């Protein structure tokens, strides 16, 4: 079992980044938390195009669970080192699983499914930042994030059927993100999807033009803009809004849902942050959760 560390003392350092997993840059997942409570998970298996195996899946689950329990976290960025976001599952790992028992394969698949669910239900806003390819399971990861930014030369693909497999564990999140109709096409053809098409079908939200250093600056500016918008909002309201989306997704608009939403807004109006937000508006001041600390993504 791996030993993980998150250095909480660094949270107090002004815009200071921290990379933590036994303090080694060679780890397949890096974690950072800045002074604003913006956490970043970085896929760092560059030599394998950030393809994930059981070890990386375990690391991601650990960090997501740990970050979810830290009260000062406000937002989670999912990024990758290297040229590509992720090529999906490591084929050598998949090959090794093919000779194992059905029970072992079930357990292994459940771990990947658990990763998707853990990211999807993370209580704070999540932003995926994509460059290069995001294939297979990696496409599933971005479908579990609330917001997706991609460089203009990014490529996406549900490539499983080319290998005699199917995108089973990521399927529910893909179908929700782009709809069943588009899911049928791209699951059955394994076509590559360019950034413009990905935006059109709802797979990604924002495209940043690729122009060498100019592109990098634009990308970081876009990330800062989004994270600043999130930091300007009530942390409690953000969590409730995200939970509301999950609830509305899975329930019909009936008396039960109407009653739930009525209670939800009534409760948050009288909550501490609800009162603070309204008071700040009428007092023409920033609410207490706003920060003037500079956001630095590099």
UniProtKB/TrEMBL annotation:
GO biological process: isoprenoid catabolic process
Matches recorded under InterPro entries: ClpP/crotonase-like_dom_sf, Enoyl-CoA_hydra/iso, Enoyl-CoA_hydra_C, Enoyl-CoA_Hydratase/Isomerase
Domain of life: Bacteria
Pfam families in UniProt: ECH_1
GO molecular function list: catalytic activity
Family: Belongs to the enoyl-CoA hydratase/isomerase family.
Protein name in the entry: Gamma-carboxygeranoyl-CoA hydratase
Lineage: Bacteria, Pseudomonadati, Pseudomonadota, Gammaproteobacteria, Vibrionales
């Amino acid at each position: 079992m791996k030993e993980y560390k998150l250095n909480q003392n660094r949270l107090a350092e002004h815009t200071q980044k921290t990379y933590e997993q036994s303090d080694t840059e060679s780890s397949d997942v890096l974690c950072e938390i800045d002074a604003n409570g913006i956490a970043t998970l970085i896929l760092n298996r560059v030599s394998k195009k950030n393809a994930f195996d059981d070890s990386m899946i375990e690391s991601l689950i650990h960090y997501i669970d740990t970050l979810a329990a830290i009260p000062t976290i406000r937002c989670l960025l999912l990024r990758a080192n290297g040229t590509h976001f992720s090529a999906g599952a490591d084929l050598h790992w998949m090959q090794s699983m093919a000779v194992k028992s059905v029970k072992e394969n079930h357990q292994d698949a459940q771990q990947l499914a658990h990763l998707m669910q853990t990211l999807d239900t993370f209580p704070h806003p999540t932003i995926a930042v994509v460059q290069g390819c995001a294939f297979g399971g990696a496409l599933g990861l971005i479908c579990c994030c609330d917001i997706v930014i991609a460089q203009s030369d990014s490529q996406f693909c549900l490539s499983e059927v080319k290998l005699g497999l199917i995108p089973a564990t990521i399927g529910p999140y893909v179908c929700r993100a782009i709809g069943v109709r588009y899911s049928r096409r791209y699951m059955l053809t394994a076509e590559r999807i360019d950034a413009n098409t990905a935006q059109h079908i709802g797979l990604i939200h924002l495209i940043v033009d690729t122009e060498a250093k100019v592109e990098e600056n634009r990308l970081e500016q876009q990330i800062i803009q989004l994270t600043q918008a999130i930091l300007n909002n009530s942390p409690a309201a953000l969590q409730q809004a995200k939970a509301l989306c999950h609830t509305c997704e899975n329930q019909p608009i009936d008396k039960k849902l109407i009653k739930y939403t009525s209670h939800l807004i009534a409760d948050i109006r009288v909550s501490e942050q609800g009162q603070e937000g309204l008071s700040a508006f009428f007092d023409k001041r920033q609410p207490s959760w706003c920060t003037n600390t500079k956001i630095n993504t590099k």
